[in-house]
Amino acid sequence: MTNTGGEFETAWHAAPEAVRRVLSRAYEALTAGGLAVGAVLTDPAGTVLAEGRNEAYEEPGTGGPGTGPLRGTPLAHAEMNALGAARTGWNLDATTLWSTQEPCAMCAAAARFCGVGAVRHLAPDPWALATVPAGSSPGSPDSPVSSGSGDFVDFGAAPAAGTLWLLAANVMFLRSVVAAATGPGEPEILRHHRGAEPETAALHDTVPPGLPRNDPVEEWLTRLWPALTEAARNREGRLGRPR
After folding, report:
1. In what order do the strands lie in the sheet with 96-101?
2. Measured over all CA atoms, what is the biggest interatomic distance in the chain, rounded to whole angstroms?
3. CB under 8 Å to 170, separation ≥6 — which residues?
4. Which residues does residue 153 pair with via DSSP β-bridges, in sequence order?
5. Which of 37, 165, 194, 221 could form a disulfide with 54 if both were Cys (CB 3.0 to 4.6 A apart)?
6. In this structure, are residues 29 and 77 in contact, taking their beta carbons and an 8 Å threshold?
7. Ramachandran region of residue 42, left (φ > 0), alpha (ψ -120 to 50) or beta?
8. What separation in angstroms does the CA of 103 have from each of 20, 34, 128, 236, 240?
9. Terminus-to-terminus CA distance in the chain, angstroms?
10. CA–CA separation, 238 vs 243, rounded Å?
11. What is the reported pTM?
12. In degrees rounded to 5, what are phi and psi of residue 41?
C-alpha cells in the first residue's frame, strides 16, 4: 500500500514556509465559505512577517473567523489583507509578497506602491483563463497573459513552487467558486478550466461536493494526495514542465 500520508508529509515539509502558509490561509477561506486565496509577506530569509486571506465575502458580525482590516469590502483580497497587516515603518523593499493565485491588477499595484521587493504566486490568475487558447496555459509562451518569456507574467509576479502546489491552490479556488455558485450548470470559470487547465478541473471533480470540514489543511491535502500527484504528472506531461 502506498504511504500517502508519509509522501505528503515529506513534500509538505520540504516546501518553503511561505508556500505552506498561503495554502493554509486559502484553505481557511475555503472552509469559511469565502474565496480561497491566501497571501503572506516574507523577509529575505523566508520568515513570514504578515499574512492574510480573501475576506471580501465575509461581513463583520456574521460570526466568521475573518479578522482582516478590510473584511467585507471589495478591497479585502488576500494580498491587500497581508499588506494591511504590515506596518508603515517597515522597509518592504527586501520583502516578498506570496499568494496562492497570481495577484490581480489592484493587488499588484498595491504591492508596487508599498515598495514590496518581489511578488510570487503558486498558480496563474484563474479568471484570465477566459482569454487562454485551449491546450495552452497562463504563463506559457503562447498565452496572452504571459510576458512571452514563460518565466514572468503580468505585473511582475513570478510563478513559484511547482506543479503540485499550483494544483492544490487551483483546486481550492475552484471549489470555493463552485460551492458558492447558484443556478443550473457549471460556473463559467470551471468550464474554462476544462479547456485551459484540464488537470485542475479533473482534480476538482474528485473532491466531494460542498465545503470541506474545518480540518487542518494537511489532513485535507493528505486525502487528496493520490489524485493530486496524478494530476501533476498529467499536467507535466501535457506541458513538458518539471514538477
Report:
1. 48-53, 38-42, 96-101, 118-123, 157-159
2. 53
3. 123, 126, 193, 197, 200, 203
4. 146
5. 37
6. no
7. beta
8. 18, 17, 11, 23, 25
9. 23
10. 12
11. 0.85
12. -115, 125
- Residue 148 has phi, psi (to 5 degrees) of 105, -15
Cell of 87: 506596518
Please tell me the distance from the alpha carbon of residue 100 to that of residue 15, in angstroms, as a whole number.
13
Binned at pLDDT 50, 70 and 90, residue 125 comes out as: confident
Kindly tell me the burial class for residue 105, based on how many C-beta atoms sit within 10 Å of its own C-beta (0-12, 13-18, 19 or more): exposed
Distance CA 174, CA 229 (A): 18
Q: CA Rg, the chain, in Å?
A: 17
Are the C-beta atoms of residues 22 and 39 closer than 8 Å to each other?
yes
Say if residues 83 and 114 touch (Cβ distance below 8 Å): yes
Neighbours of 147 (CB within 10 A): 14
pLDDT in tens, 28-69: 999 999 999 999 999 999 999 999 999 998 876 554 566 777
Cell numbers given for 191: 468550464
